[in-house]
Design brief:
Number of domains: 2
Helix content: 40-55%
Shape: elongated
CATH topology of the largest domain: Rossmann fold
Number of helices: 16
CATH class of the largest domain: Alpha Beta
Number of strands: 9
Low-confidence stretches: 438-454
CATH superfamily of the largest domain: P-loop containing nucleotide triphosphate hydrolases
Distance between the termini: 61 Å
Strand order of the largest sheet: 3-2-4-5-1-6-7-8-9
Strand content: 5-15%
Mean pLDDT: 83
Length: 454
């Protein structure tokens, strides 16, 4: 067995310069969000930085004496070499204004050590026969965290602001995103915008999956690359819905193998189109974690490009390594925040399906066609906070019962523009939605709504 005798990457001078800067200027506290004690290579420096963080959090002055006192209280003063070593750190400071750059050097070496450690763990996992599917997702997640730490967040200057904004506004297609295929909705949203989280919510069996599949199919036929995370049904059932939509064949007849020869020829041609020209990727695993979705979406984007991600549906997602004290509301809020961050990181729109609470049905027994409200989003109020667009699919009823196939798509939150209602018919045979004329609308809700300022 070969033993690697090389010393892990580190820069002790940079570590000491960062610590010593706290003695000379209060502005050194700006690096506290950037560095953790584990980022330091020397165990002595880890102890000292931990003491500095404690002093700063308690708003106490930082100097060799206060650090020595804090270390003595935790029983670690002798381990770091006493007050003599603590006092010597100041001599490493070339100029306090370089502290941020020295902190980045410390972070870069920590990232290099992490990369070495991760490669060793992957190598060991391979030798003991672990599956790549068990090892690679976690490894890619760790690598992404390393990359995130190395990515410097910065503000755009006036020149960059003006140039980038002009490029967007003067583009031939303006601010157009991924179109849904429903003209009224597209005029309102200008398509699903890159970096946006779009929530489509409804009670069960109203048609939110069917509408999401319709949006995805339209996007693919427009030449976009689409990934669907479908946790409610197998991929074959999802594709059967698309086949019914595309060929105009009854889904029921397809499932019962009674569609007829001509219809099956159309289905075969459709599947050939999918195989040869479509950029559609479906994951139908259950019980996914947001990290799984982040990893898979990143891979798809790198290999093929990705323009739209559809997730069906929010309440089926779980945090695999959540804090035991985290309740379901906080868990759902964290999941939506992760998906919003993923949309921003990949610069793609995400269409997230969600369920509404039973409060909608309870109100319907008192007031006919009572519209859903943002507060009806099930499990967490943070869903509406993180979402850029919130849409409700609302089935209309009459006093004598349901109006078959009559639904409204209600845009109840739109961070960048107006709200609207989109009247629709649902054709159950092909599971497809079609626009319904305004004059046929079954309620008196106003279609032209004011802009939201949030």
């Amino acid at each position: 067995m070969n033993v690697d005798m090389r010393i892990a990457p580190h820069n002790l001078d940079a570590e000491c310069a960062v610590l010593g800067a706290f003695f000379l200027t209060e502005t050194a506290e700006k690096i506290l969000p950037l560095l953790q004690d584990e980022h330091f290579y020397d165990p002595r420096n880890q102890e000292i930085y931990r003491a500095i963080r404690t002093l700063c959090e308690n708003q106490r002055g930082v100097d060799p004496l206060t650090i020595a006192e804090e270390l003595a209280n935790t029983g670690s003063l002798d381990r770091v070499g006493g007050i003599g070593y603590v006092s010597s750190l100041e001599q490493y400071v070339i100029h306090p204004r370089n502290t941020y750059h020295h902190a980045k050097i410390v972070l870069q070496h920590f990232a290099a050590r992490n990369m070495i450690r991760m490669s060793q763990e992957m190598s060991e996992a391979g030798y003991v026969g672990k599956s790549a599917l068990d090892v690679l997702p976690a490894a890619m997640s760790k690598m992404q965290r390393i990359l995130d730490q190395q990515t410097e967040s910065r503000c755009a200057d006036p020149s960059e602001l003006a140039q980038d904004t002009w490029e967007v506004l003067s583009a031939e297609q303006g601010c157009q995103g991924v179109l849904s295929g429903l003209d009224r909705l597209d005029r309102c949203l200008y398509g699903f915008q890159p970096g946006s989280l779009n929530v489509l919510a409804a009670r069960p069996s109203v048609g939110k999956t069917a509408l999401a599949v319709q949006f995805a199919r339209h996007a693919v036929m427009d030449g976009h690359s689409v990934m669907i995370v479908e946790m409610e049904m197998p991929k074959e059932q999802l594709m059967a819905r698309m086949a019914a939509m595309h060929t105009g064949t009854s889904l029921k007849l397809l499932r019962e193998h009674r569609a007829g020869e001509q219809a099956m020829l159309k289905v075969r041609d459709f599947l050939g189109l999918v195989q040869n020209t479509w950029k559609l990727y479906i994951n139908d695993e259950c019980g996914l974690d947001p990290v799984d979705i982040e990893t898979q979406a990143s891979i798809i984007q790198q290999k093929y490009g990705l323009d739209l991600l559809v997730v069906d549906f929010l309440q089926l997602l779980n945090l695999r390594n959540k804090d035991r004290s985290m309740n379901r509301n906080l868990e759902i809020g964290h999941i939506t925040w992760r998906l919003k961050k993923l949309a921003r990181d990949l610069n793609i729109p995400i269409l997230l399906l969600a369920q509404l609470s039973r409060d909608v049905e309870k109100r319907a027994t008192k007031i006919l066609n009572q519209r859903p409200k943002l507060s009806d989003l099930r499990d967490s109020g943070e869903i509406e906070q993180h979402a850029d667009v919130v849409m409700f699919l609302h089935r209309l009823t009459k006093p004598d019962g349901n109006v078959k196939g009559t639904v409204d798509l209600l845009v109840e939150k739109h961070r960048q523009g107006p709200l609207t209602d989109v009247p629709l018919y649902f054709l159950g045979g092909t599971t497809e939605f079609y626009p319904r004329g305004d004059g046929e609308q079954a309620h008196s809700a106003e279609h032209s709504k004011p802009y939201r300022d949030d």
